Amino acid sequence: MEKTDFQAQLQIYMDSKQRKFKPIIFVGHSLGGAVATLATLWALEKRLRQSSPFCITFGCPLMGDGGLVEAVGRENWGGNFLHVISQHDIVPRMLLAPVESIAEPLTAILPYWHGKVADSSIQDACKTLLKNVIQYTATVAYYGVDSRGSDGVIKRSPYKPFGTYMFCSNHGAACIGNSETVLMMLHFTMHSHEKLSDNIVQDWFSEHTGYGSVLKHVIENSISGKRFANPDSNSSYEIGILVQLEAIGFEAQNDHAQLALQKAGETEKRYNTNVDRLAIDLSLKQSTMAELEWYKERCEKDDIGYYDTFKNQDMKDIGADIRRVKLAEFWDEIIEKWEGRELPSDFESQNKWINAGNTYRKLVEPLDIAYYYRNNSNGNYLSDGRHNRHKVLQKWMEAKEKARGSRVQRTRTNRASLTPDSCFWAHVEEAWKDLKNLKQGQHESLQKLEKFEEYVTKMENDLSISRDVFFEGSNFMMWWEEWKEYKKNQSPDWSSPLCQKMETLQVI
C-alpha cells in the first residue's frame, strides 16, 4: 500500500474537512474481499484510528494463518471485520483443502467464470472440487486445521478465520465470532451442497454471485420476524441455538451443527467466566505490585538496589518475599489455564495481559533471580532455574513487539525505571563466575565476558538499564571494578566503549 495511488487518495480523504470523522468502510466480493481485508489491515496498522476503518466482505476466501489471527486478536481488530457467507458458496471454504487437491479442477473451472459455456468436463471438475473441499472441511471441523489423514500424513491448512462471520440462507442469518465454531459451520453449511441439482456449475455461479438476493431475504426475514422453529424446549438458550440453525438453513434435527453451536456457547461462557475472575484477581494484585514498587523505592533511598537488598535478605525483606510468592501463584495459575486451553485463543494477544505480564516480569523476576542465587550460588538461573511463567510472558511480549516491528521505534530519552531485560541480574551473576574462571586460567571465559560487556554497552546506549544497577557497591558495580582491574593488569592502556561511558556516567 506504500507510495500508491490508494494511499494518496486515502490521505486526501483523511485531510478533507468535509469528512467530519465519518468511518471508512472497505467492501469487497470474492477476491475483492481479500483486497478489502488487506486495505483495512493496512489502515488499522497505520493507526488511522480517526477513520474508524471497517471491512465487509462477501464470499471472500480465507486469508491469513494463525500468526495473522493472533496479531488481529492482539490489537483487538476482530470487531472491524464482517464476512458474509452464503450457505453453499464454495469460495470461502476452498482454501481449507490442500492446494494440490483443488488446483487441477479449479484450473478447469476458472474459464467458465469468464463467460465460457460449461460442458460435461466442467461439471465433472466441479464435482471433484466439491468432493475434495467437503472432505477436508470435514477433517477441519472434526479434528482441527492440523490433523492426520487416513494415510497417517498430516494434512495442514494454514488458513484460519478472524472477525465475525455472518452465515446466510433464504431463512435468515446468524453471526458467529468464535474461530473454531466458524470452521465447523463452514463444513456443516457446505455439506448440504451435495443435495443440489446436477447443474452444479450454475448452482455455484448463483451462490457466489447472488449475495444481493441473499441479503434481501435476510432483511425481509428480520423485518417480518419469521421463524420456522417449534422447539419442544423451555430453555431460551436451546431455543436460541435452534433459531440460529434455522436462520442458516439447518433442520432442527441436525445434531452435529446443534452440538457445535452448543459447545461454542458453553466454551465461550467458560472462557468469559475464567477471564472475568482473573481480571478481578489482577486488579486485586495491583496493590501487591504497588507494595513491591514501594519496597524498591525504599531500598533506593538508601542507595542500595532492591536486587542486592533482597539477595542479602534480612527481616525487612520478608514481606517482599511473601508478595513475590503470591504474585508467582497468580501468574502460574494464568499460564496453567492458558496452556490447558481454558482461556480464549487470543488471550495471549490482548494488550491488557501482555502489559500486565511484562510489568510483573520486569519488577519481580529480579527478586526470583536473587532468591535463586542466594540458595544456589553454583547454579545457572538462565538454563536451570528460570520459571516457565517468565518464559511464557516474555514470548507474549516478543510476539507483540514482532507484530509492531515495522513501526518506528521511539528513542528513549529518559533512563528506564525497570530494566527491560528481566534476566539482567542473572547475566551479572554468570559474569561473576566467568571472571573467576578466567582468573583461574580458563581463558575460554574471556569471550563470554567480552560478549557480556557488549551486551551492557548496548543496553546503556539505549538507556535501558535502571539506575539502581549503578549504585556504588551493587553486584554489577563490584563486578565492573574487578573486570576493569583485570583488563588494566593485562594492558594498562586498555579501554572500551563501556569503560568510556562508565567514566562519565551520571545516574539521576
Tell me what you see in this structure.
This protein has helices at 5-15, 31-45, 66-74, 91-94, 99-113, 120-143, 179-191, 200-209, 211-224, 236-247, 255-301, 306-311, 318-339, 351-375, 381-385, 388-403, 424-439, 445-461, 475-490, 497-503; strands at 25-29, 54-58, 81-86, 146-148, 154-156, 164-169, 172-176. Strand 6 (164-169) and strand 7 form a beta hairpin. Helix 14 packs parallel to helix 17 and helix 17 runs parallel beside helix 19 (475-490). It is α/β, with parallel strands linked by helices and 508 residues long. The two termini are 44 Å apart.
Q: What do the pLDDT scores average to?
A: 81
Coarse structural class = alpha/beta
Unreliable runs: 145-150, 233-239
Give the overall shape: elongated
Q: Please list the strands of the largest sheet in the order they lie side by side.
A: 1-2-3-6-7
Spatial separation of the terminal alpha carbons: 44 Å
Report the β-strand fraction as a percent range. 5-15%
Total number of β-strand segments?
7
Order of helices and strands: HEHEHEHHHEEEEHHHHHHHHHHHHHH
- What is the helix tally? 20
Q: In angstroms, what is the radius of gyration?
A: 30 Å
Q: Main sheet, how many strands, which sense, barrel?
A: 5 strands, mixed
**Percentage of residues assigned to helices:** 55-70%
